[in-house]
């Protein structure tokens, strides 16, 4: 059977080269739209306005093509307009930057009443050919290489660029036998399970670190509460009038801290105000640390190399080795890093506070560890303001109460925590390496199939 060559003249030269490569696969290729419907309609005539349906916003879909997502129920009347409809078995594929590049995609199943609604930034793909597996289509369009080349099909302005439906419609799709499709899907499913097991093991180790730190300090944290009604006396409100700040959970933290020696963060550290100016930078590029390049789970930081003439307006904070950088946006997520000598000369986003000087009676490593512990992360949440993206000011950050044990205890907590974090990072590394190799294997099967 001879493959069908496709014309994609509307796309960039680099994307055309990739599409031509797909067309050259010896397995017969036809446009993906030959086998699937792109953004099909959904019959909602069976639903009354109070009927429940699944709801999947963009943030509920995991990255890196893991296929994981969370669905909640909403009344049909609430979501019938302003959202994208889909049905059980449909594939959701993010079309907007950066969600597309980050691999936000999944196959939905088990939706309430078999119907769901979600972000308008999803393309919906529905297989209509009995000889094509939806799981295989999803694996195919979620490949790293596929997503990289999809960026060359972007339309729209910077920050709001999207992959048009025509990219998926014209995409050359290799039609392997149903048994071969099942084989390829099974291998990838096994790889995902291995990755999930490694990551679960790492998560358990992280919980043990938190428990160790709290036990060493002799602190018992209150159980988090949600939606609990409470009242406070007006004479205890002081400067904060927002109810969130005075919730019983946070009052419980104050009570737990009252039993040990604590000090206000701003009383023993100094924040750096050193500023970087791109116009005074002699090199063509610089190394840039953003909130997204600090891993919230481990506190490990990375940088991106950025052309100096494209420096974002937020790239303004100079950092030095031994600085502790604290994310001011969603600070309770733990994007807090202790920088080593490799970060000398890097520039950080203004979304960070930079702790530069720390009094000698406090181990810098201990301070980093304790700021990332639940006892401080919950205070960061308490002192933040805002809805979906709560943020904290440097003034409020200074008010965080930090447990200060003796130097031997600080050293023990720091060394044990960093040792255990090393084990966690090893597990993460093993999981990601195996996952990377598995994805590469899948692509090799596609492009080298006889």
Outline the secondary-structure elements.
Elements: H1 13-23, E1 29-31, E2 36-38, E3 52-56, E4 72-75, H2 76-79, E5 84-87, E6 91-94, E7 105-107, E8 115-118, E9 122-127, H3 134-141, H4 144-150, H5 165-170, E10 172-174, H6 178-217, H7 248-257, E11 262-264, E12 269-271, E13 285-289, E14 304-307, E15 315-318, E16 324-327, E17 336-338, E18 347-349, E19 352-358, H8 364-371, H9 374-382, H10 394-397, E20 401-403, H11 407-447
Parallel strand pairs: 3-8, 13-18
Antiparallel strand pairs: 1-10, 2-9, 3-4, 5-8, 6-7, 6-9, 11-20, 12-19, 13-14, 15-18, 16-17, 16-19
Helix pairs in contact: 6-11, 8-11
Provide key terms for this protein.
single chain, 450 residues, alpha+beta, 4-stranded antiparallel β-sheet, 4-stranded mixed β-sheet, 20 strands, 17% strand
Task: Specify Rg, calculated over alpha carbons.
Answer: 26 Å
Low-confidence stretches: 1-10
Tell me the total number of β-strands: 20
Structural class category? alpha+beta
Strand order of the largest sheet: 2-9-6-7
**Biggest pleated sheet:** 4 strands, antiparallel
Which shape, going by the Cα principal axes?
A: globular
User: Count of helices?
Assistant: 11
> pLDDT average, as an integer?
89
Range of helix content: 25-40%
Spatial gap, N to C terminus: 12 Å
Q: Which strand-content bin applies to the residues?
A: 15-25%
């Amino acid at each position: 059977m001879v493959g069908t060559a496709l014309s994609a003249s509307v796309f960039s030269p680099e994307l055309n080269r990739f599409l031509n490569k797909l067309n050259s696969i010896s397995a017969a290729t036809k446009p993906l739209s030959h086998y699937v419907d792109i953004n099909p309609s959904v019959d909602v005539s069976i639903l009354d306005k109070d009927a429940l349906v699944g709801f999947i916003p963009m943030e509920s879909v995991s990255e890196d093509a893991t296929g994981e997502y969370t669905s909640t129920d909403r009344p049909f009347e609430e979501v019938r307009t302003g959202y994208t409809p889909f049905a059980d078995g449909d594939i959701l594929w993010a079309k907007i930057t950066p969600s597309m590049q980050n691999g936000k995609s999944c196959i939905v199943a088990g939706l309430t009443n078999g119907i769901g609604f979600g972000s308008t930034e999803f393309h919906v793909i529905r297989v209509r050919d009995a000889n094509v597996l939806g799981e295989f289509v999803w694996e195919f369009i979620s490949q790293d290489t596929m997503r990289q080349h999809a960026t060359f099909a972007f339309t729209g302005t910077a920050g709001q660029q999207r992959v048009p439906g025509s990219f998926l419609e014209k995409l050359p799709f290799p039609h392997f036998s149903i048994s071969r499709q099942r084989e390829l899907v099974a291998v990838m499913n096994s790889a995902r399970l291995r990755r999930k097991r490694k990551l679960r093991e790492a998560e358990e180790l992280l919980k043990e670190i938190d428990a160790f730190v709290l036990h060493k300090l002799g602190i018992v944290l209150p159980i988090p509460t949600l939606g609990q009604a409470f009242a406070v006396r007006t004479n205890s409100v002081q400067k904060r009038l927002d109810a969130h700040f005075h919730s019983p959970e946070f009052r419980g933290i104050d009570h737990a801290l009252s039993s040990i020696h604590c000090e206000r963060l701003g009383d023993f550290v100094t924040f750096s105000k050193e500023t970087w100016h791109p116009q005074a930078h002699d090199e063509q590029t610089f190394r840039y640390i953003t909130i997204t390049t600090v891993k919230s789970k481990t506190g490990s930081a990375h940088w991106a190399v950025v052309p100096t003439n494209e420096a974002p307006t937020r790239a303004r904070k100079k950092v030095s080795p031994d600085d502790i950088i604290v994310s001011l946006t969603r600070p309770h997520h733990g994007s807090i890093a202790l920088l080593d000598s490799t970060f000398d000369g890097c520039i950080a986003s203004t979304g960070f506070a930079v702790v530069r000087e720390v009094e000698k009676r406090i181990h810098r490593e201990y301070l980093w560890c304790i700021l990332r512990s639940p006892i401080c992360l919950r205070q960061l949440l308490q002192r933040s303001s805002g809805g979906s993206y709560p943020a904290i000011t440097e003034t409020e950050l200074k008010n965080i109460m930090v447990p200060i044990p003796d130097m031997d205890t600080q050293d023990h907590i720091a060394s044990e925590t960093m040792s255990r974090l090393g084990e966690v990072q090893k597990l993460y590394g093993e999981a990601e390496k195996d996952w990377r190799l598995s994805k590469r294997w899948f692509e090799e099967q596609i492009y080298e199939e006889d």
